[in-house]
Design a protein that fits this description.
- This protein is of the alpha+beta class.
- The protein has 4 domains: 148 residues, Thiol:disulfide interchange protein DsbD, N-terminal domain (Immunoglobulin-like, Sandwich); 201 residues, no CATH class; 79 residues, no CATH class; 111 residues, Glutaredoxin (3-Layer(aba) Sandwich).
- The protein has 22 helices and 18 strands.
- The strands form 4 sheets. A 5-stranded mixed β-sheet has the order 1-2-8-5-13. It has a 5-stranded antiparallel β-sheet with strand order 6-7-3-10-11. Strands 14-16-15-17-18 form a 5-stranded mixed β-sheet, with helices on one face.
- Strand 10 and strand 11 form a beta hairpin.
- The radius of gyration is 31 Å and the shape is elongated.
- The chain starts with a helix and ends with a helix.
- The N terminus is likely disordered.
Length: 600
Amino acid sequence: MRILLFLLISVQMWAVGFLQPDEAFKPSAKMVDGKTIGVEIIMGDQIHIYADKLKVEDADKKDGIDFKSVTMVEPIVLDGEKVYESSPAIRIALFRTKELTGEKKVKIKLSYQGCSSAGLCYEPMEKTLEVSLDASKVPMSESSVLKAPAVEQKSIDIAPPPVAKPVIAEKSETDQIASVIKGGSLWVIVVSFFGFGILLSLTPCVFPMIPIISSVILAQGKGMGAKKAFFLSLVYVLSMAVAYTIAGILAGLFGANLQAAFQTPWVITSFALIFVLLALSMFDVYELQIPNFIQSRLSKMGSQRGGVIGIAIMGFLSALIVGPCVAAPLAGALIYIGQTGDALLGGVALFSLSIGMGIPLLIVGTTSGRFMPKPGMWMDIIKAVFGVMLLGIAIWMIGRVLDENTTLLLWGGLAIFVAINMNALEPLGAHPSWSSRANVKALGFMILLYGVSLLIGGMAGAKNVLHPLDPFIAQAQAAPIKLEHKKFEKITSIEELNAILAESKGKKVMVDFYADWCTACKELEEKTFSDESVKTAMDQYILVQVDLTANDEAARTISSKFGIFGPPAILFFDENGTRKKDADIVGFKEPQEFIKHLGK
């Protein structure tokens, strides 16, 4: 078992770039004076040692030289744990228990355990250090000297200068959530994260899954009752939960963002095409154009077993591709897994979170079966509606790859397609029915006008789907007097960020971790960062945006450096370039909530 654990940790460190144990911790010992040994543990970047795991013992109690006392600097309190983020600077006072002369070797047994802030905890370690000394300079035992050495943790006058007094670090939102797992009972964890999941189900990350589950239930055909719809919806939600749980455990243990790996252009494009094909099936295109070998496969999938497998695959992939957002509860669970290596308890929290996120999907899928109309015109209308929604998801997904202008043109084309199918350009006829014709035509005509405005605005350089005519309004109006606000400097590597932090002494820095495929990141930009009050509040910071879209080696390195499991995440650095970890933001925040956070 220990060999398996060693191999697992070795593979993890190799894959993510963590320091090997001998690189992360470099203990050494030497004589400070004739009667005192100094022990140092040089730690790598973002490495800390737990104070309660650090022990210093006399490895050879028969050599005639014993420990009188062991002193070390006081630890700091970080996330509720006493830790050393720099060498504890241990000092061991010696005494002789018998007459000795000449050079002698003293053996010191040093035990410790530490973790990397990037998400890896090392196994407990033991090292035996040897120091040569002149035994005649070590004082003899006195009656007042206790046989057992007293180990104290206090600041002492050593070189380099004494470490500052302990700093009690406040917990960030994600750390507080991580402590729920660490300190709570199993049922508290399950209930808490289930509640977090229900709240997250109201975010844009889950909305695109609603037409997906509705259409896959609808695609099962006739004989869809409430029980069967509930069962198939449960399969979809459970598959989605399994995907989130696996992706989360991997991110916590290895720092590998499985969801980010699925955001490459070819994966997104392929999945968008799948939604287009599903939409075409809603419009009955398959019966006319689909090849026979695909028809045979679809007919096989139409069986109960095939349908279940197909829905399970769709639920699993939807979780990884459609909704890759990181929020505070998810990040809290990942922090716990990364710090403790307890994938089982962390996985339970993630699974409970995912089930909470899937509750609305379960309700939608079940009701799709319960209230499904009998075959006829209504069935065709509902299928067409879901077909349009699937095309909308395809455009939304491919928008992560295309530029904003091209995406706007696609939205315009879809709106015009819908309007034409609603007969927006057809005459009403001699005796139109108010309920069935006039209101539908009016709605279709408004959708047509909106689609045309999207096309025109997209060609004119507009980027916002809600304000497609902004380029023309800006030209028609006199240029308003606008305050000049700071803009984000976009970077992609840790070297660029280090250079900015080095040059920003005396100024505060705000770092936004962003990706094109992150829905909540787009929401932050369009709703929060664009708010005039937020812009004014952010003017006190140097603004930096780390682009993680490529998910390449540089992106993984900078994410691991700061323990970022995925975007959106916002970090703050003070005037000295020190990260204010308690101020971290993970997930979306409304403008006023964001301003309130900055005010703290």
